[in-house]
Design brief:
There is one protein chain. α13 packs across α15. Helix content is 40%, strand content 19%. The protein is α/β, with parallel strands linked by helices. Strands 15-16-14-13-17-18-19 form a 7-stranded mixed β-sheet, sandwiched between helices. A 6-stranded mixed β-sheet has the order 3-2-1-6-12-11, sandwiched between helices. The protein starts with a strand and ends with a helix.
């Protein structure tokens, strides 16, 4: 019996939560005590994160946790790649820019003029996506050199929030690993790469390991919020890193889909895999707890559904996710597909229209109704899961008999079933709150309450009953999959 109480802040791309976790009698119980929206703000053509309001929400969460009986530690996880810049006095220079902002348009090609595509992948092992921190910094070199010249320290989003709470300027390993600024061979900063691209490497803070402590809450925060000076633990601060901690398995070889705004389809390895085949499939080697490697494919996940729903609401339709799922089920299957990772689907805006444009340009039946568009998105995601699984199995030489599906997307039963059917294997779905659960688990390991990740995963497995999905009609996907491959970008 322990009775440890821990506070996890879990930031997604559209919302955030404060979760109070209680560890007692070998089980971990979660209670959501504060939820808030995470709304980017477009100002004169630039899309920003509203970082000060998000920090206000952190303070609100701490206050509510104090009133709920207190807590022993704090952990923060967020999305990857984005960052804030501090000047020499530790002041935030600008609001962090959103990874969906257009400033990185064309920046991959600019970098490739100095460091060719193949060489960049070989030197970093990271999937080439224009939202990566490296390309954001290249955009600043080209178009915002004045701000970059004034900057002294770069802090990724969870590190920035930890700095606001503690005053410590450090970068946790898993969040840093998303940036394309690390050397996979040394595990440290790729300083030579930055210098080659004229990006000042003075910006790079001290790297710390997952499970270390940034520091304790500052006296000012404690005075303002009426809380004790508890440690702020550097959990796996990239949200996918925390989610993978929560995969409820004791197997060394497993495959997972961390399903939310993004779908991260991957496996956990002991060391990076960087070769011609992994480069061809554009697979990434990101950091995990204990310096493991999250070898995975980033797939444009539930963003496609979320942004479509937002468009229909803007048009005046009062439509829920459950409504959209029902409409998708009611229409004929396999009439058209999109590549979920086509660059046109990344920005906010009228996504249903872009789905129609993609289908028209690729010579397919153009979906007209909401249900037809939703069916196209659902089946395309399932097909991309199949593609990612086969890619990973080809590169690793391993075969995986079951898929662990974790995160908020597991509430979508249609997507879980389609994943099982398309991939022709069982899907074990859960925990739903995988990211917050993994965040809390690392806090417990750091405090000595759990012996390591093996015990953490056993506790997590005992704390929530997953749902099982068996393939029901996998043969129907085979011919359709061949058609899907023909429209892949």
């Amino acid at each position: 019996m322990s009775g440890k109480r821990l506070l996890a802040f879990d930031f997604g791309a559209s919302s955030g939560r404060a979760i109070l976790g209680t560890y007692s009698d070998g089980r971990l119980q979660l209670e959501e005590i504060h939820r808030f929206s995470n709304d980017p703000v477009n100002v004169r053509g630039t899309l920003y994160w509203d970082v000060l309001r998000l920090f206000f929400e952190i303070k609100q969460g701490i206050t509510k946790a104090v009133h709920a009986g207190g807590f022993d530690a704090i952990g923060i996880d967020t999305w990857g790649v984005d960052f804030g810049l501090l000047d020499s006095e530790g002041r935030l220079l600008k609001n962090p820019v959103h990874y969906r902002d257009s400033r990185t348009d064309g920046m991959m090609e600019e970098v490739f003029k100095t460091v060719p595509r193949e060489e960049l992948y070989d030197r970093t092992g990271i999937q080439l996506m224009n939202l990566n921190t490296l390309f954001q910094l290249e955009a600043m070199v080209k178009n915002d050199a004045e701000t970059l010249a004034r900057a002294e320290t770069l802090l990724f989003m969870p590190d920035l929030f930890a700095y606001f709470l503690t005053g410590a300027k450090r970068a946790e390993y898993t969040i840093a690993s998303t940036s394309q600024l690390l050397d996979p061979k040394t595990g440290g900063w790729a300083r030579d790469l930055l210098r080659q691209l004229n990006i000042p490497d003075r910006l790079l803070p001290e790297l710390i390991e997952t499970g270390e402590t940034y520091g304790t809450l500052s006296p000012e925060i404690c005075e303002e919020l009426g809380c004790p000076a508890v440690p702020v633990i550097a959990v796996a601060t990239h949200d996918t890193g925390s989610a993978v901690v929560a995969v409820p398995t004791q197997e060394d070889d497993f495959i997972y889909i961390s399903c939310g705004t993004w779908s991260l389809f991957g496996t956990e390895l002991k060391k990076p895999v960087i070769n011609e085949t992994s480069r061809r499939f554009n697979l990434t080697n990101e950091g995990g707890y204990g310096r493991t490697v999250r070898f995975l494919k980033n797939i444009m996940g539930l963003w496609l559904i979320q942004e479509s729903r937002r468009q229909w609401i803007r048009e005046g339709a009062d439509v829920s996710y459950a409504d959209l799922e029902r409409e998708a089920v009611a229409v004929r299957p396999f009439t058209c597909f999109i590549d979920p990772d086509d660059a046109r689907f990344a920005p906010p805006g009228n996504l249903p229209r872009r789905v129609q444009e993609f289908c028209r340009e690729t010579g397919q039946t153009v979906p007209q109704t909401r249900g037809e568009i939703m069916r196209c998105i659902y089946e395309s995601l399932a097909m991309k899961y199949r593609y990612a699984r086969r890619s990973i199995e080809e590169v690793t030489g391993r075969s995986y008999g079951v898929i662990h599906m974790i995160g908020g997307g597991t509430k979508d039963r249609l997507l879980c079933q389609m994943a099982a059917d398309a991939c022709r294997c069982p899907v074990i779905a859960g925990p739903i709150e995988a990211t917050a659960t993994g965040n809390l688990a690392v806090q417990l390991i750091a405090l000595g309450e759990l012996s390591g990740i093996g015990q953490a995963r056993s506790v997590i497995a005992a704390s929530e009953q997953p749902k099982h999905y068996e393939p029901q009609n996998p043969g129907a996907y085979d011919e359709a999959y061949e058609r899907f491959l023909k429209i892949m970008v």
